[in-house]
Automatic annotation (TrEMBL):
UniProt-listed GO biological process terms: maintenance of CRISPR repeat elements
Pfam family, one: Cas_Cas7
Listed InterPro entries: Cas7_Csh2/Csh2, CRISPR-assoc_prot_Cas7/Csh2
NCBIfam families assigned to the protein according to its UniProt record, in alphabetical order: cas_Csh2, cas_CT1132
Protein name, UniProt field: CRISPR-associated protein, Csh2 family
Amino acid sequence: MNNNEILYLYDAKLCNPNGDPDEENRPRMDYEREINLVSDLRLKRYIRDYLLDLGYDIFVRGVDGKTVNAEGRTKEFKEFTDEWILDNLIDVRMFGATMPVKGDNKTFIGPVQFNWGYSLNKVELLESSITSHFSSDTGNSQGAIGKDYRVKYSLIAFFGVVSGKRAEKTKLKEEDLQLLDKAMKYAIVNLATRSKVGQYPRLYLRVEYKDSHTILGDFRDYISLNERVENVRDIEEVSLDITRLVEKLDENKDKINRIFYFADSSLELTVNGSRVDLKEALKDFNLVEVE
C-alpha cells in the first residue's frame, strides 16, 4: 500500500464537539488564541462506532453494553494470534492497539493517524443552566441544576496520514480505506447525541500517492478561512481559500495516484478570489468521489 494524506473539515453549531472532563466538560479550547480543539481520539471514536454499526468487530469497545479495560476486552477473543487479531479487528488494522497478554503487551502501530483538530475561526462559548426533572442525590425534589457548555460556531479542520509501510504490517486493505472514507462522510451525522447534534462534514480529501515514502505535510497550512462577518455563526458566512493547496498538489502531480473526496455545497471554496467547484479545481487529477 502507498502513503496517503488526509484533510477533513466539519463544522459544529450550538453543540459540544469534544468536552474536556478537567474543565466541567466545556468544549476543549486554546483560550489564548480563542481556538476550539478536538482530540484525535474523539474523531477515531466516531469512526469506530460507525464501523461497529456496520457490523465490523473492533477492539476498542465495550462488552455486552458495559465498559471494560483492554484486558477485559481481550478475554472475549476466540484466539490471540497476530493473524487472528488483524484479520478480525478492523480498528487495529487502521489505528493500531496495545493489548495485555499474560503480563506483557502486544503492540500494533497503526498506519492511520490524525493529529488534533482545531477551528479555523475564533470560537465563542455559550454557557447555560439545565435542570433535570429527576431529584438530586441531596434530596432536592425540584431536580438538579447543572451547566451546559457549547460552541456558538466552529469550523474544525483535521489532518491525517496513512503510512504505506505500516499498513503492510497491520494488513490494512484498500477496502478498509474506502470504509474510512465513508465514515468521514457519514459517521458524525449518523451518530449524533444530544451534545453533538449540529455537526456536519463539509470537506474531505484523501490524497493517495504513488509510493510509500511521499509526504507533503499538513494540508491545513495551505488553506485559509475568509470570514464575511466579525463573529461567524453559520457556514454561509465564510468561504475557504484553497488556492495554495491546489498549487501544492499541482506541483506534486507526478507523485499523486488518486484523490478521494467529497465537498458539501454549503461550503464556498475559492481559488485566486473566485468561487470554484472542488471537482473543477482538481480536474487534472484522477478523482474518486465518496458516495
